[in-house]
Write a structure and sequence with these properties.
Elements: H1 2-19, H2 24-27, H3 34-42, H4 67-77, H5 91-96, H6 100-119, H7 124-137, H8 141-155, H9 157-165, H10 174-188, H11 194-228
Helix pairs in contact: 1-11, 4-6, 6-11, 7-8, 7-10, 7-11, 8-9, 10-11
Length: about 260
């Protein structure tokens, strides 16, 4: 039975990865002033729970009666560094924890993807760039801002600004160009062109290119989930990195 449950979860995750991609060509937002976006974030509709800034409440162990679910919940929710222990922002993992096995499956997959990227020569700076391109091209401002400090450390403010403003990539490192152009086509066109795909494989190899694509799809599925639950960022005291923090007094740069 558990084998079938695992197969269903994996299949469902794969569908979530691919299901949102074509959709973004329709829903990509028009340029939004940083201050206007902050105002949207501060305004909570009646169905948003203030304690999570989401339509979902924060799951807790007592929500589950099955011993196995309780064990899985504990592994995900209480692991070292878990944002669920200190952040107000629920985020994708907190939302998925309503089904603990699903949350754990996603966490395992993102770990495997990063592991494969490292194994196949996709260095840390290109992994972070993949995050930035995917979150920018899907208008996932929450996770773009979450990752921005790490991104700037890895490859500098100039490249981050090119990603953010969708500026021309001429003169960048060919590997950076390959990731940026691939991501722009993946989320902005009906299909990725032969050139963009070939450039990605030439720069990172077949397994590296696949890992880049899978990581982009992971962040795409995160944002689809957060849009469904109308996740807002946290304008209060920032408890730590990657916690959905928003400095309302200093709006982020415009898209």
């Amino acid at each position: 039975m558990r084998r079938w449950q695992g197969l269903l979860i994996t299949a469902g995750t794969a569908l979530a990865f691919v299901g949102g991609i074509a959709f973004h060509k329709v829903v990509l937002a028009q340029p939004v002033e940083g201050s206007d976006w902050v105002a949207e974030q501060l305004k909570l509709s009646p169905d948003i729970h203030p304690e999570t800034l989401s339509r979902a409440v924060r799951p807790k162990e007592s929500d589950f009666t099955d011993p196995e679910e309780k064990k899985i919940f504990d592994r995900v929710n209480n692991r070292a560094g878990s944002k669920q222990l200190f952040a107000r922002w629920l985020g994708p993992t907190g939302t998925r924890l309503q089904i603990p096995a699903l949350a754990e499956n996603y966490n395992q997959q993102i770990g495997m993807i990063h592991g494969q990227m490292t194994k196949n020569g996709v260095a840390a700076q290109y992994q972070e760039l993949t995050d930035a391109v995917a979150t920018r091209e899907t208008d996932n401002r929450d996770e773009f801002l979450n990752h921005e400090p790490d991104a700037v450390k890895q490859y500098g403010q100039k490249v981050e600004d090119i990603v953010r403003t969708r500026a021309d990539t001429t003169g960048l490192d060919p590997k950076q160009v390959a990731i940026i152009e691939f991501g722009r086509e993946l989320f902005g066109k009906t299909k990725v062109s032969s050139k963009a795909f070939a450039d990605l494989e030439r720069n990172f190899g077949k397994k590296g290119a696949l890992s880049v694509a899978l990581l982009m799809c992971y962040y795409d599925s995160n944002y689809d989930l957060m849009r469904a639950y109308d996740q807002h960022m946290d304008p209060g005291r920032c408890p730590g990195p990657h916690s959905g923090c928003l400095d309302a007094k200093n709006p982020p740069p415009n898209w």
